[in-house]
Amino acid sequence: MGSVVGNETFVQARPIVRDANNEPVEDVLRTASPCVIASFHVGTDDERFAEAHPSVRLARFRRWIGTRAEVELSPATRQRMRGEIPDFLARSQSVNNDSELVFLRFLAALHASGALGAPFATAAEVRQALATTHALLGEGPSNLMVSDGRTLGVVHHGGTLYSLAPPLPTGRALRPEDVARAAARHNLLWYDPDGPSELPPAGAERIPEGIFTIECLRPRTLSRD
User: Which end of the chain, N or C, is more open, meaning fewer C-beta atoms within 10 Å of its C-beta?
Assistant: First the structure.
C-alpha cells in the first residue's frame, strides 16, 4: 500500500493476514492521504507467500508510486522495455519484477516528454505516458495504476474496474471524523481480474476500459483523451 503526501512517498507492506473476515479496504481508508494505491493478493497458507509473489509490492521512484495487476511480461516485451529505460531509472529498481519494469517504462515516457523533471506532470502528460507504455504490452489484459499524489493515472484493459463510494469503518462506533473522511474520499476504485459479467453491485459503477486520469483532490473528475 502506498501514498504520496507533498514530496513524501510512503509505501508499507502489510503482514500476511490469515483472518478470512479481514476487510483489506479498511487499511486504505485509514490512510490520511488524498490518494492511496493498494495491491492485495489472495494467497495460500504459506509463510513465504510474499517472498514468492513479489508482484503484490508497489513500485516507487521519487514522488511516484505504481502497481500493475498482471504478473509477467512476455520475454520479448521484457527485453524491449529494459532496453528503453534510462540508466538512472534502471538503477532505482528494488522490487525487480515485471510490474516494476512497466512502472519504470511509464516513468521513462514521462522523462522523454520532459514531464518527469517538472514539479508536477499534467494529467494529459500522464495519460500520454501511459498510452506509450500500454502500446508496448500487446493485446492481453493490462491494468496499471500510478500516482504522484496529485494525479492518479490508470490503464484498464481486461478484468473489471468498479467505482464506488468507500464504506464506513465497521466494528466500532462511528466518530464524526470517520464520516467526514469517508465523504471526502468518495471514489474508491476496485479492480477485480475475475469480475462478474453481470451488473455491478448496488452503488457501484463499472468503468469502461481505456486510459484515464483522476485529480486526487477531486476524485470524480475522470478525464480521457
Answer: C
Per-domain boundaries in the chain: 2-223
For 2-223, CATH gives: 3.60.20
Q: Which three cell numbers stand for residue 112?
A: 522523454
State how far the Cα of 26 lies from the Cα of 131, in Å rounded to an integer.
Answer: 31
Give pLDDT tens digits for 174-204.
Answer: 566 665 555 555 688 888 887 766 666 667 8
Q: At what angle do helices 98-112 and 123-134 cross, to 10 degrees?
A: 130
How far apart (Å, rounded) are the C-alpha atoms in residues 23 and 204?
A: 18
**Grid coordinates given for 102:** 512497466
What value does the mean pLDDT of the chain take? 80
Q: How far apart, in Å, do the first and last CA atoms of the chain sit? A: 28
Q: Give the SS3 label for residue 68.
A: strand
Distances (CA, A) of 183 to 76, 165, 194, 199, 216: 45, 8, 29, 25, 14
What is the value of pTM for the model shown? 0.80
Query: What interhelical angle do 75-83 and 98-112 show, nearest 10?
Result: 40
The x, y and z cell numbers of residue 134, run together, are 500500454
- Residue 4 CB neighbours (<10 A): 24
